[in-house]
Every structure is written in structure tokens, then in C-alpha cells.
Design goal:
Length: about 475
């Protein structure tokens, strides 16, 4: 009985197998024949060469390599050039110029349609589509200046920007610390944030560099002129609050009656407190926005921040507090809730350097004019320039530039940040911004060093060394 059942099951299975073979060979013959034929057809992708990025003199800044790119400036160019990564179909830009101009740099991949045998060996080529290489990109960067700028920051947290004030062309843009563009993953949890572009994404109180805006506003609003004298009293008291000048705080001394040129030379806080009082916060905020504060500059890089210019409406909305005169005084010297990126400070300085032009900063020129004339009198920028020249001469605040062989117009900045009562209170960012030659500038340099101390002692020497390098090649 058991043998009969077994024979019956074997017979049934055999009939099932025969039926399946019949279905494959007869009923579904065309389907499986097409599938077999198509399985022998393969598309072999031909990647397109990515466009090469060059500096202003035609020096390559990167080049194609197996599975990616070689970056010839390494860390020095990391935050401006960016890096690439594997996309769905091909390599794509992930940051910096590589990302902003990815569509142009990428090109279009090609392919070869081939027929293979059962072992996967190519039997014949059926069709071919040639790859279209990406377009090369010539930038405004100066490779030597970029490398020198990065070296001068020496791994400290900060940023350095150099530009041409007459065109808006960026000559160097460095964020420090940098990173290896071919090993991005290891920096993702780095507490020093090397992947963060401080030059255009970092927002900081500008400190006394902002006095260039306050001076412009007071002169253009006819609150003062070249002959106006204001007495340095050392300290201003408003109710229970006191607002002092740095010279009085450090040395217990005052500077007597001074004009706008002397006030810029000595970065006199009392003078600029009084200007803030004369102007009022609305006029001061309007002029700051006229310079571009509160808006991205529009540079051709991803990740730009807008900065912030507080006013009564802003304070009420953000802090749920009313605006007081003291807020206006500290805003006039670039403190309080004002935030600027190093790129914005560089732009502010460029407006003075170019006698009132605002030129959009850019890294790739498209054969057009990036500049527009602002409604600022040349007498205003001339007076401010006089003060900035004296900043870098004997008696000014930028002592590293005394006896510098080229005339430099500069402004130091020491910007307080954080809660003074906290463990991190009392810290200051170091700023220095300048243009040279003062009478016909071809470069604007801005240095920011995070939490480094005083601008004259920390940031100014960096700018001096960069300008020395720049003019040694002229």
C-alpha cells in the first residue's frame, strides 16, 4: 500500500514538471526568449570628466582623480572650493564652489551598449554615447594669497578675506581650521567645526569696526562735520548704567576734545556713543542696512548668513523687551545684538575704500559689472579714510602697522561676546579690517580671530603679514 502511494506521488510530480516545461517552452516562449536576450545586453557607463577649477592666473586648484578629486591647496582651499561625493549617477559637488557650480562642472556621462555571453564576456558593441566633459571654472582667487592666508591663521579659529574693492573680486577666502576635502567623514563630529565656513556663515559682534558705519551715518545725516568737536569725558552715565571709553577703562585717562578723524584714529567710544545719541537707533539701523547688514551679500558660495541689525521692533519681537537709549549707545560701537559675518565687514570696508561703491563679492566673474554707486558723498568717505590712515600711524590703535612701507587705512575691533557673568564671560573676538594703498587701494583685508583678545594685538599682525606678502609681489 505504501509503495503504491509513493509511485502515485512520483507520477503526479512528473506530470507537474512536464506541464511547467511545456508552459516555459511553448506558452511563455516569447517572454523568456526576450528576457534571455535582454539579460545579455548591458550598458557600460562612461563617466564624464569634471571641469577643473583654476585661480585667476590659470593655476589649477583641483584635478580629476580615480573615484574623486585631488585638491592642490588641500586644507587651505577646503572651505572655498568645497568637496565632492558620490551621487545617484555620478560624482557631485557637496560644498563650496564645487556645489555652487556643480551643474556646469559636472558634465554629462556617456555609455556603451554591449552584448555579453553567458559568462558575462563582451561579444560585441551595439551602440555608444560619448561623455560630455564639464566646463572648466576660472575663479578670481589668487592661489598664493589663499595659501598664505591659511598659513597665517595657523589653525586658530577664525576667518580671513581679501578682495578687490573696485570690482568685488574675492582674492582669498579662508575659514580656519580647514579640513581634508578627501576625508570629510572624520570631521563630522569635530568640536572645532572645520566644515563650517566662518568667513561667510559665522555671525559675530563686529565691535569697533562698525564705527565706520556710525561715522558714515553721522556725516551723511549732517549730525557732525569735519570740524565738530566732542569732549571725551571717559564715561557717560545714564541712570544706574555707565558707558566708558576703553582708554579710560584701561588707563584712567581721557583724550580731551576730538573730531571725527581723531575719534577713528583712537577708536574713541565716547565720541561714537554721542553719535549714536544724535542719530537715534532708526537712522543708525537704516544706514547699517544701506551697507548690506541684515542681508546676504549674494556671493557665489552656499551657506551665507545674513547677520542682524537690531532695532526697537526687533528687540520687542525677539527678546520681548523695550528699547532703551543704552541699547543705541552700545549699537553705535558695534556691540549689543549686532551680528556681522567677516564677509560683511569686508564689504563695509570696501565701500569706504571705493569711495562709496558697493560691489557684490564674487569668485567667478561673468563678464559684467558687479558694482553700484551708493548715495554717499566723497567728502564722507574721504574723512573716514583719513581717520583710518591715522589708525595705522604713530598714536593710532593699529601699532603693528607703524612704519609699514605702504600707506594702509585700517580699523581695529575688539568685540565682547557672551554673558560677562558666565564662566565664558569677558571674552573678545579680535578684528582688523583695512585697505591699501590708502590712496588707490587694490586690496581689502579683513581678519577675525574667535575669542583671541584685542584686535590690535592679534588680528592686525595677521593682516600686516598678508599685506606684506601681497605687496612683495607687486
Amino acid at each position: 500500500m505504501k509503495l503504491a502511494i509513493f509511485e502515485w506521488l512520483v507520477t503526479l510530480s512528473l506530470f507537474g514538471l512536464i506541464a511547467r516545461l511545456a508552459a516555459v517552452q511553448i506558452i511563455d516562449h516569447n517572454y523568456y526568449q526576450t528576457l534571455a536576450r535582454e539579460n545579455r545586453i548591458k550598458l557600460v557607463k562612461i563617466p564624464a570628466d569634471r571641469g577643473v577649477i583654476y585661480d585667476r592666473s590659470g593655476k589649477p586648484l583641483d584635478r580629476n582623480a580615480p573615484e574623486g578629486r585631488d585638491y592642490l591647496l588641500a586644507e587651505a582651499g577646503s572651505n572655498v572650493l568645497g568637496y565632492v561625493g558620490e551621487g545617484d549617477q555620478e560624482i557631485e559637488g557637496r560644498d563650496g564652489l564645487e556645489k555652487f557650480y556643480d551643474e556646469s562642472l559636472r558634465g554629462k556621462a556617456g555609455g556603451i551598449l554591449v552584448e555579453t555571453d553567458t559568462n558575462g564576456e563582451v561579444m560585441r558593441e551595439i551602440g555608444r554615447s560619448e561623455p560630455q566633459p564639464g566646463k572648466n571654472l576660472t575663479t578670481t582667487l589668487d592661489a598664493g594669497l589663499q595659501q598664505k592666508a591659511y598659513e597665517l591663521l595657523s589653525g586658530r579659529k577664525g576667518a580671513l578675506i581679501a578682495s578687490d574693492p573696485k570690482s568685488g573680486e574675492i582674492l582669498a577666502l579662508v575659514s580656519s581650521p580647514g579640513f581634508d576635502p578627501n576625508s570629510v567623514e572624520k570631521y563630522l563630529t569635530d568640536k572645532n567645526l572645520p566644515l563650517f565656513n566662518r568667513a561667510l556663515g559665522g555671525e559675530y559682534p563686529p565691535g569697533s569696526t562698525f564705527k565706520l558705519v556710525t561715522a558714515t551715518a553721522a556725516l551723511e545725516e549732517n549730525k557732525i562735520n569735519a570740524d565738530t568737536q566732542i569732549e571725551d569725558t571717559g564715561v557717560i552715565n545714564i541712570g544706574p548704567y555707565s558707558y566708558s571709553n576703553w582708554y579710560f577703562t584701561q588707563y584712567g585717562r581721557t583724550e580731551g576734545s576730538i573730531n571725527i578723524v581723531a575719534a577713528i584714529k583712537r577708536s574713541n567710544d565716547i565720541f561714537f556713543y554721542r553719535l549714536g545719541e544724535m542719530l537715534g537707533i532708526r537712522a543708525l539701523a537704516d544706514w547699517a542696512k544701506f551697507f548690506g547688514l541684515g542681508y546676504p551679500t549674494g556671493i557665489d558660495l552656499p551657506g551665507e548668513a545674513a547677520g542682524a541689525m537690531p532695532d526697537p521692533q526687533w528687540k520687542l519681537l525677539v527678546k520681548k523687551e523695550n528699547w532703551f537709549l543704552g541699547d543705541t549707545l552700545i549699537a553705535a560701537i558695534g556691540q549689543g545684538d549686532i551680528l556681522m559675518t567677516p564677509l560683511q565687514v569686508n564689504q563695509m570696508t570696501s565701500v569706504i575704500a571705493s569711495a562709496g561703491q558697493w560691489c557684490r563679492p564674487h569668485l567667478v566673474s561673468a563678464g559684467r559689472d558687479y558694482c553700484r554707486k551708493l548715495d554717499i558723498h566723497p567728502e564722507t568717505t574721504g574723512l573716514i579714510t583719513q581717520g583710518m590712515i591715522q589708525v595705522t600711524q604713530a598714536g593710532g590703535t593699529a601699532w603693528p602697522f607703524f612704519n609699514f612701507p605702504v600707506s594702509v587705512a585700517g580699523k581695529t575691533g575688539t568685540a565682547e561676546y557672551g554673558d560677562k557673568t558666565s564662566a565664558k564671560g569677558g571674552l573678545t573676538h579680535a578684528w582688523f579690517t583695512a585697505f591699501a594703498p590708502a590712496d588707490n587701494p587694490n586690496i581689502v583685508v579683513t581678519v577675525l580671530l574667535e575669542g583671541a583678545g584685542e584686535g590690535s594685538y592679534e588680528a592686525a599682525p595677521v593682516a600686516k603679514d598678508l599685506l606684506s606678502y601681497w605687496f612683495s609681489r607687486q
